[in-house]
Amino acid sequence: MNIALYGRQYDFVAADARFAALIGGIGSGKSIGGAARALAAALGQCGPAKMRAPNIGVVTAPTYPMMRDATLVTFREIAGRVVTDFNKSEMRATLANGSEILFRSADNPDRLRGPNISWWWGDEAAYYHRDVWRVMIGRLRQYGAFGRAWVTTTPKGRNWLYQEFAQADRDTHVMFKVRTADNPFIEAAYYETLRASYAGDFGRQELDGDFVAFEGLVYPEFSQDAHVTSALPDTFRYHVAGVDWGYVHPGVINVYGVDSDGRMWLRHEEVARKRTIDEWVVAAQQLNATYRIETFYCDTAEPSYLQAFVDGNLNAVPATKDVLPGINAVKARLVVRGDGRPRLLYGAWCRHNIIEKEQYAWAEGRDGLREAVRKANDDCSDAERYAVMGVDGGGDGALFAGALSYESAGSGSLY
Questions:
Q1: Which of 77, 166, 217, 284 has its CA 20 to 30 A from that of 246?
Q2: pLDDT tens profile 180-209
Q3: Where residue 394 falls among pLDDT bands split at 50, 70, 90?
Q4: Same domain, residue pair 196 and 285
Q5: Does residue 405 fall inside a structural domain?
Q6: Spatial CB neighbours of 135, under 8 Å, sequence gap ≥ 6
């Protein structure tokens, strides 16, 4: 079987490192490199070092839809007739040599615990919680041998992946970086269109594959280690939801459990594009049946949508939309208190919210002052503000005093 690879792709596939990463811009061929390495491993050849075959491997993607629509499609195109059977209900592929590959979502790290495996490929791994890496490398023990793992991804800030591969100097780790422009198989017009649209740090990340520490983040207090968890309380006093309408841009329903200490825990995120209001009502009713949501704090931009929620027997009320007080309220909850814990935490499977936290930034205004937030990477953040303001009574000045640290000219629109 011949698979067309360009230079850095081939170097990655042939690398004999225990742990490897192919970090690159969008369209740079990362997933093709990951799929080619997976096929080589399943056939008993991963780099110069032979692997025992047949074997069991696992392929993961951040969510099931991303697995179904992207990662799995890429692998099956690469593997072709080498796959002799695919069990859709079990998401399990069997190869001609008897090797098996399991395709799994990484949205809940604990669900990845299972049988011993020889190798693991994590696609778009920058979206994962750190625990996915920890769980998966612990499974690399089929036949009593320490297996291999590799990841392919576009960076998303300087998160755990940056620490694991870019910062650490380890003989067991190797990282290859590719740019969108490096891929000889994409049209120049495609790249030039993206380059014209993706400026500054965002372009460096999305096209050049750089680990960028975005300047002027709205929530620099946030860190995955402090705020993201797979262990939620068994019981909650009540639940609320923040709702941000969208169609072309994503619409969002964030569901928070409030515990006996008043901490808010993000339990569920419903994020989707091109849903009608009738579809959002159904989704909200299903969430209400699961979580018994006390109040839906809704964006006031579409009064008829809010009324549709009310008509659907949902306790929907207008959200407090003041941007600065809302940001201040979220910041106050993100602060790690004297007991070593913040008052706002995120389920590890709520990846859209987590990713936004690491990209939601202030826009730079006149004279370099940060007067407004960028209207990008803000859909989940808006829904969150509505819920937090609802729980905290619209913004008690005593509770939020001193929480906000930013530069402002003291005037100008923030919305």
A1: 217
A2: 999 999 999 999 988 887 767 778 889 999
A3: low
A4: no
A5: no
A6: 109, 110, 112, 113
Bond preceding residue 54 cis, omega within 30 of 0: yes
The CATH number that applies at residue 352 is: 3.30.420.280
pLDDT tens for 93-135 read 999 999 999 999 999 998 999 889 999 999 999 989 889 999 9
pLDDT band at 401 (very low <50, low <70, confident <90, very high): very low
Residues 391 and 326 in one domain: yes
Q: Which residues contact 59 (CB under 8 A, 6 or more apart)?
A: 38, 67, 71, 72, 75, 101, 102, 103, 104, 120, 121, 123
- The more confidently predicted of residues 398 and 61 is 61
Are 251 and 182 in the same domain?
no
Are 229 and 138 within one domain?
no
Where among 142, 177, 206 does a domain terminate? 206
Looking at the domain assignment, is residue 413 inside a domain? no
If you search the block for the tokens 């965002």, which residue do you land on? 202
Q: What percent of the chain is predicted at pLDDT more than 90?
A: 69
> Average pLDDT of the chain?
88
Instruction: Give a yes or no: residue 148 inside a domain.
Output: yes
Which of 128, 102, 105 has its CA nearest to residue 117?
102
Q: What is the pLDDT of residues 138-197, one digit of tens each?
A: 999 999 999 999 999 999 877 889 889 988 778 999 999 999 999 999 999 999 988 887
Instruction: Based on the fold, state whether residues 58 and 184 are members of the same structural domain.
Output: yes
In this predicted structure, the answer to whether residue 409 has a pLDDT above a threshold of 50 is: no
The number of domains in the chain is 2
Contacts with 93 (C-beta within 8 Å, 6 or more apart), sequence order: 75, 76, 79, 83, 85, 86, 87, 100, 101, 103
Kindly state whether residue 349 falls inside one of the protein's structural domains.
Answer: yes
34 in Cβ contact with 103 (< 8 Å): no
